Amino acid sequence: MSWLDDVLKASRLIKSGGFVAVTHGGTAHADDTVAAALLKRHGAEAVYRLNTVDEILEVGGGVVLADIGDAFRGKLPERYAVLDHHGVSDPSEEPSSVVQVMYAVGARPAPLVATLIHFLDLFDRYGPGAKRWAGPYGNSLNNGLTKYFSDFHGVVKDEKFLDLVAEAVYARLEVDLPAFHEAFKLAERLPYADAAERFPRTFQNLRLMLSAARDPVAAAATKEAYETGFGVDFGAYAVLAVPELEPYVLKGLEKYFGDAAKAVELVTSGRYSLLRGDAAVAVAVEDNIPPAPLWNALLDTGVLSNEPAIIVVRDRRTKGAYTVWRPDRYASVIDLRRLKGDAVVFKHVTGFMAVVKASTAEEAAEYALRQL
After folding, report:
1. Interior CA angle at 15 toward 9 and 16, to 5°?
2. Secondary structure of residue 166 in the 3-state scheme
3. Do 233 and 116 touch, CB atoms closer than 8 A?
4. Which domain of life is it from (predicted)?
5. Please, which residues have CB within 8 angstroms of residue 164's CB and are 6 or more apart in sequence?
6. Which terminus of the chain has a lower count of CB atoms within 10 Å, N or C?
7. Among positive and negative, which fits the CA dihedral 138, 141, 142, 146?
8. Quick one: pLDDT at residue 161?
9. What is the pLDDT of residues 203-260, one digit of tens each?
10. For residues 84 and 24, is the Cβ–Cβ distance under 8 A?
11. Can you give the C-alpha Rg of the chain in angstroms?
12. Exposure string (b/e) for 199-221, b if CB count within 10 Å is 16 or more?
């Protein structure tokens, strides 16, 4: 059964009506956020964010799963349609879930939106490395959309947010790339300008956003933008096309950069463990915090320099488990697909992250270091 068969099954289920949508909980990404909004617009009676097969099996009626389900599709009855791209060995084998959902609902966005979703798809599948193909496009205000959506677990009660995101997908606003500087002015309303000067790597995206508020094309073409994957994205278009989305995206950005501030506080207070293995150094923390700002805070404070490293933090989606993450710059020397054993819950097909069950962050770090 190919992913296109899954799309056809989902399409039939959607057309029959009376279905519900499910995406994963924990950290949200742009593909599952937009996918959830599209499924809501096209008739989903409810949208859920759930993580385990037991939770999902409790959802009644016809169910369309987006960005989750490949790992346990064999346990699902016929009333479930799975639009997930994590069961492949190569990210080129399937488009991300938002593209699969767009096919299933028959979405036909305008050219600019289609371009932005194309790059949303590539960044989701290939990570920041996709920037080398993306020119001025990348990931920026999507962080506000997804951070806002991340707060929900179980049924998503803020249906207005989903309606507005879907409205942006179908918008017909046509603007030139320089006009996106208006969207990035949102960054000027954030309270982290002083921190961005003191911790330039940790708040790198904020500095790029502030630069993009003046000239988004120039900001997206810098060396920093290519290192981080920064650029014009669907979120930036959404706040221009649907101004009602601004407060949602702003609130999400406040929380996104709040994580950066938390990373700085965690590192400067010494709440981490440093472990050294043959292939890499590991930094383990018991907090649930995104690993990228934590790694950048470790560089800003001189705890790490240029040595290959992995970051281990408490996983949001799986109880009793830890996320193991490696920066993209170390892709040639650290491949987390090498991790094996019953403790491994998940491995991303590109090898940049894995989820490992363990009693402590240090135990998860040691488990990973032994296999690298």
Report:
1. 90
2. helix
3. yes
4. Archaea
5. 238, 242, 244, 245, 248
6. N
7. positive
8. 98
9. 999 999 999 999 999 999 999 999 889 999 999 999 999 999 999 999 999 999 999 9
10. no
11. 20
12. bebbbbbbbbbbbbbeebbebbe
